[in-house]
Design brief:
With 231 residues, the protein is of the alpha+beta class. The protein contains five helices and eight strands. The chain has helices at 24-37, 88-100, 102-118, 154-179, 190-202, and strands spanning 42-44, 50-58, 65-72, 77-85, 122-127, 138-148, 212-214, 217-218. Helix 2 (88-100) crosses helix 3 (102-118). The protein starts with 23 loop residues before the first helix and ends in a 13-residue tail after the last strand.
Length: 231
C-alpha cells in the first residue's frame, strides 16, 4: 500500500477508483512522477501565471517535439499544448498557391479547420495577413487539451499528450505533402509580431524574448496562448 504522502495519494488509474478532490500541489507532484516513470525529458520554465510549467520532449527520441505542460494558478486543471511554426519555404509555397488559386487555398485551410475540430482538441491557426490582395499563408498552429483534476490519471494525461502528438504529426505531414520540406528555418508569424509591438507600446520597459525551444516550437504560457479562450 502506498503512503498517503506520495503523489499518488489522490490519484488512481483503477477503473473502480473513487474520484477525489485534489489540489494543484498534488497534481504537480503526480505529473512529475508520471513523466519520470515514462522516461520523458522535462525542464521547468519560469512562469508567473502558472503553478507548474514544464517543457517536455515527446516522443522520447531525438526527433521528439517540445510540449508545454502547465497548471495555471487558480485553476483546477492541467493543460498540455504545443505551438508549431511553419517553415519559411513552406510559407512561400503557400503564398504561391493562394496567389494562383485563392479558392483552392481557402478550401485547404477549411479542411484543416474541420480536421482539427473533429480531432477533439482546442486549436488556434495563425494565418498571415493579405499582401497586395493575396491571402497569407499558414504561419503557425497551437494545439492544446486540458485535463481537469477530478479526471486526472496517468492514463488520461499520457493519452492526451499522445493524442496531441499524433494530431500535430498528421498536420505536419499534410503540410509537407502539399508544400514540400521547406528551407529548414521557421517563417514569420504576423500575429506574434503585432502582439509584441503592441506589448512594447503599452509597456516601454525592457522584456526578455520568448525562449526558442526547437526550430518549429516557441511560446510561453500567457504570451502566445491564452487559457481564458477555453475557460
Amino acid at each position: 500500500m502506498r503512503s498517503q504522502s506520495t503523489p499518488y495519494s489522490a490519484f488512481s488509474n483503477r477503473a473502480d477508483a473513487p474520484t477525489l478532490s485534489v489540489n494543484a500541489r498534488d497534481a504537480a507532484s503526480a505529473v512529475r512522477e508520471w513523466l519520470r516513470s515514462e522516461r520523458l525529458e522535462a525542464r521547468d520554465v519560469a512562469d508567473q501565471q502558472a503553478m507548474l510549467h514544464l517543457h517536455v520532449r515527446y516522443p522520447p527520441t531525438k526527433q521528439g517535439h517540445v510540449f508545454n505542460v502547465v497548471i495555471p494558478k487558480n485553476r483546477n486543471l492541467v493543460l498540455i499544448y504545443s505551438v508549431t511554426r511553419v517553415d519559411n519555404g513552406q510559407q512561400k509555397e503557400m503564398i504561391s498557391h493562394s496567389g494562383n488559386d485563392p479558392g483552392e487555398w481557402e478550401k485547404w485551410l477549411h479542411e484543416i479547420r474541420i480536421h482539427l475540430t473533429q480531432a477533439d482538441l482546442d486549436w488556434v491557426l495563425h494565418v498571415g495577413k493579405k499582401q497586395e490582395g493575396v491571402p497569407g499563408p499558414l504561419q503557425a498552429f497551437n494545439l492544446s487539451r486540458p485535463v481537469w483534476f477530478d479526471g486526472l490519471t496517468q492514463n488520461e494525461f499520457m493519452h492526451n499528450m499522445r493524442h496531441l502528438w499524433l494530431t500535430k504529426l498528421a498536420l505536419i505531414h499534410k503540410i509537407k505533402f502539399g508544400y514540400g520540406s521547406g528551407e529548414g528555418k521557421p517563417g514569420p508569424v504576423d500575429d506574434w509580431i503585432a502582439k509584441k509591438a503592441q506589448s512594447r507600446g503599452n509597456q516601454p520597459q525592457t522584456h526578455s524574448e520568448p525562449t526558442e525551444i526547437h526550430t518549429d516550437e516557441t511560446g510561453g504560457f500567457g504570451r502566445d496562448f491564452d487559457p481564458s479562450e477555453w475557460a
